[in-house]
Amino acid sequence: MDEPIKTLDLSREQQDTATLMQRLLGKRIADRYVDCCRLATGGLPLRVSRPLAAYALRELESILRQTLDVPMEVAVPPTPQDMERIEKAKAGLRAIGYGEEDVQRVANQLRPRLSHKEEIEKIVTRLGLAPDGDIARAWKSISQAHGLAHGARAASNNRGR
Asked: Are 15 and 5 in contact (CB under 8 A)?
């Protein structure tokens, strides 16, 4: 059994959440959650904490979605027509000289998938929550934090010119 996560820089609620995440989702996700909590406190001596915190939060969100993808049945299975198109694309790429690694990478990108927003809505619905409720809206806003980090960096880079 996993030991409770105890660190002095986390609140009791954050420690309990981290312990639960470790037990349910694994150490990898729990560690990222702890890092996000630490970044959010502002206690680390960072000069540019917003982009770093946004990246860390976005990474946690991405891993969480990937982890819940299979048990929540979020993936979109390809139709026979999708598979036929993918096979034709692969054959065409091989015919013009692309290597197998490149062919497989393209084939994976051609598989049908839900948008980021649709994945979140499907997961929260499977959890019994409203797809347009507070939790879904807050979760979706995390992806915007990543964009804000890029925007803040781009804006500061442009001011220096």
From this structure: yes
Does the CA dihedral 2-142-117-63 come out positive or negative? negative
pTM (two decimals): 0.61
Q: How far apart are CA 49 and CA 28, in angstroms?
A: 22
Report phi then psi at 130, rounded to 5. -75, 135
To 10 degrees, what angle do helices 27-41 and 49-69 make? 150
The number of beta carbons lying within 10 Å of the beta carbon of residue 144 is 12
The pair of three-digit structure tokens given for residue 9, joined into one six-digit string = 């820089």
In sequence order, the 6+-apart residues with CB closer than 8 A to the CB of 38 are 9, 10, 44
pLDDT digits (tens, 9 = 90+) for 76-100: 889 999 999 999 999 999 999 999 9
Residue pair 32/56 in contact by the 8 Å Cβ criterion = yes
